[in-house]
Amino acid sequence: MHAWLCENPIGVDALSWKDLPTPQPGAGEVLIEIQAASLNFPDLLIVQNKYQMKPPLPFVPGSEYAGVVRALGEGIKGLQIGQTVACLSGTGGFGTHTLAPAKLCMPLPDGFPAVDAAAFIMTYATSHHALIDRGQLKAGETVLILGAAGGVGTAAIQIAKAVGARVIAAASTAEKCALCTAQGADAVINYGTENLREAIKTLTEGQGPDVVYDPVGGELAEPAFRSIAWRGRYLVIGFAGGPIPALPLNLPLLKGASLVGVFWGDFARREPQANAAMMAELARWYSEGKVKPVIDRTMPMSELKAAYARMGSRAVMGKLVMVN
Ligand SMILES: NC(=O)c1ccc[n+]([C@@H]2O[C@H](COP(=O)([O-])OP(=O)(O)OC[C@H]3O[C@@H](n4cnc5c(N)ncnc54)[C@H](OP(=O)(O)O)[C@@H]3O)[C@@H](O)[C@H]2O)c1
Hints:
By secondary structure, the protein is α/β, with parallel strands linked by helices. The protein contains eleven helices and 15 strands.
């Protein structure tokens, strides 16, 4: 097998494409031949030692992937050799093969292509848990989505539309805004050229959005929070923009508003039954055509460094997927 190995987490340049012995699965594990693996923002952080999860060295990055089960360890029930699965195991995806815990493998129904499957779990689970569980978004409410053309952002647009909300999508370029409109956004704000607060005020007739979905942070957070509606819910998803913002606490007081943390990974670990029910709903929505990953492009696995550069330079729209 081949894989991108991180022996020193000082950045993408230190990754090397290695020829490694193909491992045999231990108890509870399966060997997966990887067909597709998507890039998520944490994949960028983990190779720089900036992510909360710090795997022992050396490790193969690649949090999320899909492929074919080629060998089963002891004690596996419900998975078979030759079956296609999607898996989010945190590491291992950027290679030709990996070992994965069987309990993290989601068997794929017919008609769920590997490229879509590899781009599905992290973004859709995060956005569903955020908007519906943590944010209590209801039909007829307005949601403002920042970084709306990114991975979690495009999933959030589709999920908010699936529950009947009005979507204001905000992104940094006209091209990204056009993508958001194509994904069903009711209105867009280009915060590369427009004043965010003024645009929100105009689009909501001064009322503000009921829910703000924020995977960007940085300088967008305070103006977005200042614009929120009475009883609004501000969803803290991530800080792709860099700095972790600080907010004056009089702002939630004045709006009767809530600042709501979202950590899908721990939700899945602590509340596995609720997570499984959510994933089942998302799989049904996929089969009904309500949600479908936006694929920025596919690239050969060997071009991982170029893919990382594309994500780091803010160029990805939707999901970038590496393929073998
Ligand atoms: N809380 C959770 O459970 C959870 C789960 C998954 C992901 N996340 C977090 O969500 C965030 C987004 O993840 P993602 O996979 O959707 O990433 P992504 O596809 O790269 O999207 C991030 C968006 O952030 C914006 N951005 C602003 N400044 C940026 C910068 N300096 N570099 C890169 N992007 C920048 C970009 O939109 P514009 O150019 O339009 O501003 C970009 O489209 C990350 O912080 C990630 O860690 C959180």
